[in-house]
Amino acid sequence: MATLEKKKELADWLMALENEDILNKIVDLKNKSTLDLENKFKNGLEIENFRSEIKERIKNYSSRK
Q1: What is the pTM of this model?
Q2: Domain ranges in the chain?
Q3: Do residues 22 and 10 touch, judged by C-beta distance below 8 A?
Q4: What is the pLDDT of residue 60?
Q5: Close Cβ partners of 14 (under 8 Å, ≥ 6 residues apart)
Q6: How far apart are CA 10 and CA 16, in angstroms?
Q7: Coil, strand or helix at 19
Q8: What is the pLDDT of residue 56?
Q9: What is the tens place of the pLDDT at every residue in 5-46?
Q10: Are 17 and 23 in contact (CB under 8 A)?
Q11: Is 14 helix (H, G, I), strand (E, B) or coil?
């Protein structure tokens, strides 16, 4: 089944759905799967810290097998 067909089938099913508990669970799932990039990266590494971390990781990779 193509993606567009799946979306249409789900949309039709949701429009006919009357069970409030199931609707709330679907909304919770949607909210959990939505990326909030502003908050996710708020405490991220600054560019110099990032570079240092990457350089350190590369140094720690074993080039010998």
Answers
A1: 0.44
A2: 3-60
A3: no
A4: 84
A5: 23, 26
A6: 10
A7: coil
A8: 87
A9: 999 999 999 999 999 999 999 988 888 876 666 776 777 777
A10: yes
A11: helix
Q: Which residues contact 9 (CB under 8 A, 6 or more apart)?
A: 1
- Residue 61 phi, psi dihedral angles, 5° rounding: -70, 135
Tokens of 29: 């799932």
CA distance 20 to 27: 10
Say whether pLDDT at 63 is over 70: no
**Helix or strand run (H / E) with residue 29:** helix 20-33
Show the CA angle centred on residue 22, arms to residues 20 and 23, nearest 5°. 60
Sign of CA dihedral 58, 60, 61, 62: positive
Spatial separation of the C-alpha atoms in residues 27 and 39, rounded to whole Å: 20
